[in-house]
From TrEMBL:
Record-annotated Sialate O-acetylesterase domain positions: 109-337
UniProt-listed InterPro entries: SASA (IPR005181), SGNH_hydro_sf (IPR036514), SIAE (IPR039329)
Keywords noted in UniProt: Hydrolase
Hydrolase as UniProt keyword: yes
GO biological process, one term: carbohydrate metabolic process
A GO molecular function held by the record: sialate O-acetylesterase activity
Protein's name in the database: Sialate O-acetylesterase
Keyword rRNA-binding in annotation: no
Length: 482
């Protein structure tokens, strides 16, 4: 009898706990006053309440009051239509016992900004690692039409609905911009200036993170096996799925326009795997957001001396990862890539020039997403080659106005059938092709450009967008001349 009574008490306490958990209507952290909702589209509002709780949503921009009933799980979600109004808006979420007022809401362009440390590094920089233009950006930051939301570093073994730590929506100011992602802020600031509408930036990055950490269990598990037993979440940026669970999942399905991504340095040793993982991650994120193939623009990792050797035939030559990122352009629909071959730093993995990175991402967005077709967004891309005059001529796509070099071309190497590459002389031919030649290679068959971890790009198009490193061969056993 006592045992039966004990069980009944446990059941009662369990029901009481469930009731207390959703005694009030609660919202995800991303939905709050001062937020930016994607303009002129259908957006999701969601939260939690008691099972069967009737909830009404009234807004300043819609005539009708919307109604929704919480499911047995306590979840509720509703779709609202936004407008192009630039005026601050309000919304009131009502239940039988409470009213949540959301004020100072703006309609604008909402972008998710994610990746590892080159996305995470703030305007103020890291210790001894500055960001060019920081002082000017901070001094000129005050702008209520730019709103910032930051997800703090956190990890979880299972998908979370709530964020453990974050910085709530706030207007751009000297104080808020100083500690916000440099790439994300420069991207958003320029976008706001061009479009003349509010911009909301959601920043969720963690330095040193593997791409596997940003993938869901389902998407990663379809490609490779992984085990989360006995993991130390203090090093959560190195473990599969844990950042997706804690730093991306709680944001879904907040309606966004698109995403910008800067990551890859942590995966340089596995370029072939990255070529599988990256498109799978993007596809999975898009499926979970449920708003179609939203724009996804990313940064090709910058040159950096990952090893002292810096040899072309180094197994960890980062040029192979850059190549994998380049190839992903043909795999990921509605994507674009910012090339950074000209702005790396040899011994610091965080290039100081974050504004050019952001601008090159923005050029993709302006041309492909916002219809500014006059904006050039891609530098020269290797197209084909042909032999002539004891050398190799290289032709390019995305060079309609021709090719350019500030000084002489550098970084080209050429090989014969023995697959041994020698430094080569390269010149721009008729302003649209590159001629490559070496006296040490009589019958050349292949050319590589900037095929090292650390290198400096010297080839540009007429709008000064750099070419990616490239190779005309597909050899895995090529050698560098001694």
């Amino acid at each position: 009898m006592k045992k039966k009574l004990f069980v009944l008490v446990l059941i009662f306490l369990g029901c009481l706990f469930t009731t207390l958990t959703y005694a009030k209507v609660t919202l995800p952290e991303i939905i709050s006053s001062n937020m930016v909702l994607q303009r002129n589209t259908k957006v999701s509002l969601w939260g939690w309440a008691n099972a069967g709780e009737k909830i009404s949503i009234r807004t300043s921009w819609l005539k009708e009051t919307m109604h929704v009933t919480a499911a047995n799980s306590g979840d509720w979600k509703i779709i609202l239509q936004t407008t192009n109004s630039k005026k601050p808006q309000s919304a009131w979420i009502n239940s039988n016992k409470q009213t949540i007022a959301l004020t100072n809401i703006l309609f604008g362009e909402v972008w998710l900004c994610s990746g590892q440390s080159n996305m995470e590094i703030p305007i103020s920089g890291y210790m001894g690692q500055p960001v060019y233009g920081a002082q000017e950006a901070i001094a000129d930051a005050a702008n209520d039409n730019i709103r910032l939301f930051t997800v703090s570093n956190q990890a979880s073994l299972t998908p979370q609905n709530k964020l453990g730590a974050y910085k709530e929506w706030q207007s751009a100011s000297a104080a808020s911009v100083k500690d916000f992602s440099g790439v994300a802020y420069f991207f958003g600031k320029h976008l706001q200036e061009v479009l003349g509408v509010p911009v909301g930036l959601i920043h969720s990055s963690w330095g040193g993170s593997l791409i596997e950490a940003w993938m869901s269990k389902e998407s990663l598990g379809a490609i490779k096996h992984f085990d989360l037993n006995n993991v130390d979440l203090k090093r959560g940026n190195r473990f599969p799925t844990v950042l997706f669970n804690a730093m991306i999942h709680p944001l879904i399905p907040y309606t966004i326009k698109g995403a910008i991504w800067y990551q890859g340095e942590a995966n340089i040793s596995q370029p072939k795997l990255y070529k599988l993982l990256f498109p799978a991650m993007v596809s999975d994120w898009r499926a979970r957001w449920g708003i179609g193939d939203f724009p996804f623009y990313y940064v090709q990792i910058a040159p950096f001396a990952y090893s002292k050797q810096n040899r072309m035939d180094d197994p960890d030559n980062a040029a192979f990862l850059r190549e994998a990122q380049l190839q992903c352009l043909d795999i990921i629909p509605n994507s674009g890539m910012a090339v950074t071959l000209d702005i790396g730093t040899e011994h610091i993995i965080h290039p100081t020039d974050k504004k050019d990175v952001a601008d090159r991402l923005l050029y993709n967005a302006l041309n492909k997403t916002y219809g500014y077709k006059a904006i050039d967004y891609a530098g020269p891309m290797y197209d084909s080659m042909y032999n002539k005059n004891d050398g190799i001529y290289i032709t390019f796509k995305n060079a309609e106005k021709g090719l350019y070099a500030f000084n002489k071309l550098d970084g080209f190497e050429i090989a014969g059938a023995d697959k041994v590459f020698y430094p080569a002389e390269a010149t721009i031919y008729q302003r649209k092709e590159v001629f490559v030649k070496s006296d040490k290679v009589i019958n050349p068959v292949a050319v590589r450009y900037c095929w090292r971890s650390w290198t400096v790009g010297t080839l540009f198009d007429n709008f000064l967008l750099p070419a990616s490193s490239f190779r005309t061969d597909n050899w895995d056993d090529a050698k560098q001349s001694e």
